[in-house]
Amino acid sequence: MPSSHHPQNPGWYGPYGGRFVSETLIPALDELTEAIAGIGTSEAYKTELNALLTNYVGRPTPLTEAHRLAREIDPSKKTIGRLFFKREDLCHTGAHKINNAIGQVLLASKMGKTRIIAETGAGQHGVATATACALIGLPCEVYMGAEDVKRQAPNVGRMKLLGAKVIAVESGSKTLKDAMNEALRDWVTNVATTHYCIGSAAGPHPYPELVAKLQSIIGTEARAQLMERTGRLPDAAVACVGGGSNAIGMFRGFLAAASVKLYGVEAAGHGVATDKHAATLTAGRVGILHGSKSFVLCDEGGQIKEAHSISAGLDYPGVGPEHSWLKTSGRARYLSATDEEALAAASLVARTEGIIPALETSHPIAKLGEIASEVAKGIGRPATIVLCLSGRGDKDLETLLARCLGNEAN
Ligand SMILES: Cc1ncc(COP(=O)(O)O)c(C=O)c1O
């Protein structure tokens, strides 16, 4: 598996990553690292996981060519040759998060853990973890910022129906960062019995690598499907970046192929020049958050700033350490799209392709024109682009109706 993870220096991606946690958690992180190397590489685990991904999650997800959207963005056909969506929205529970949740909960059950906790922003990771726990038979508690509990109400209902306990977190900005703080606090107290199922390729070692491996199925499938459909690799792979799990999953399929340009798109909220955005790689600085060294949104004294995005899944002031390395090393480029650009993109995809994308995914869609121009200029011909459609917009329906249709909705 091609990776920018340093095999001689586990847990580090260039100068980013590591373990910046209390001593109490080190044995649990060591235990998890050992389980990944042992149980995680066993034929029994791999066979069971693959069967669940096929028969329960619905993998492989399709690769859909977005003909009408491509022509809408580039009627001249000069910059976009072909545009493909990797359809993670068609996974059971509606987003890529389920790949990671099933993999981790299965591993935890085989480690003898009797309780699962998770944090969630948009609720998709909470729903995915609650689903995996119901399937495998483990109790589940999900920490969610009180603000996100309000704006992602359908997912709160889903988690409860699936038997999970949802704990609304009232501290800080009442969003994902605060939920993760509380989950880490719970884990420190209950570490012997509990597995903390982190939802993105972030956190202390070994989480970024574990989540990236579990999500690399996205890129592996996309690469094979593109080879079959077009006979060659794409010119660019594109994904949204919150903590960065769907993006790193997609990128892992193409990291070793230098001809494939990698683009991550973050949330610019009201604009990166304002203090209301979540564009960590674009406008952040190197610091420590949730157990690893990476780009973060913080002030000069290192205090974490509040992030803002219309999309709850991107509203996070940190990012997984591998993305920081891909940015610094120049292997990937990171752009950002505003709330308004994402809303317009969601509406456009719905009307041209019959797909209502999650607000998270609408961010990279909004930047497709810019990305295609840049790539086409570099290669001297229209580009073939694959974009990870990380989730569906059902959870965002209220926002989409209010902001995209306005009075038309009535
Ligand atoms: C549909 C969807 N896409 C993307 C994300 C962002 O997370 P990540 O960057 O880890 O893929 C989320 C997070 O909740 C999500 O629900």
Helical percent range? 40-55%
The neighbouring-strand order within the major sheet is: 3-4-14-9-10-13
What are the secondary-structure elements, in order, as H or E?
A: EEHHEHEHEHEHHEHEHEHEHEEHEHHHEH
Low-confidence spans: none
Which strand-content bin applies to the residues? 15-25%
Biggest sheet layout: 6 strands, mixed
Bound compounds: pyridoxal-5'-phosphate
Number of strands: 14
Estimated radius of gyration: 20 Å
Structural commentary:
This protein has 410 residues and is α/β, with parallel strands linked by helices. The protein has helices at 26-37, 43-57, 67-73, 97-110, 124-136, 146-151, 153-161, 176-189, 207-230, 245-252, 280-283, 321-328, 339-353, 359-366, 368-379, 397-405; strands spanning 12-13, 16-17, 63-65, 80-87, 115-120, 140-145, 165-169, 194-197, 236-240, 261-269, 285-289, 292-296, 332-338, 383-389. The radius of gyration is 20 Å and the shape is globular. Residues 95, 97, 121-122, 124-125, 200, 240-247, 313-314, 358, 360-361, 390-391 line the site of pyridoxal-5'-phosphate. Pyridoxal-5'-phosphate (PLP) binds at residues 95, 97, 121-122, 124-125, 200, 240-247, 313-314, 358, 360-361, 390-391.
Features:
globular; 16 helices; 6-stranded mixed beta sheet; alpha/beta
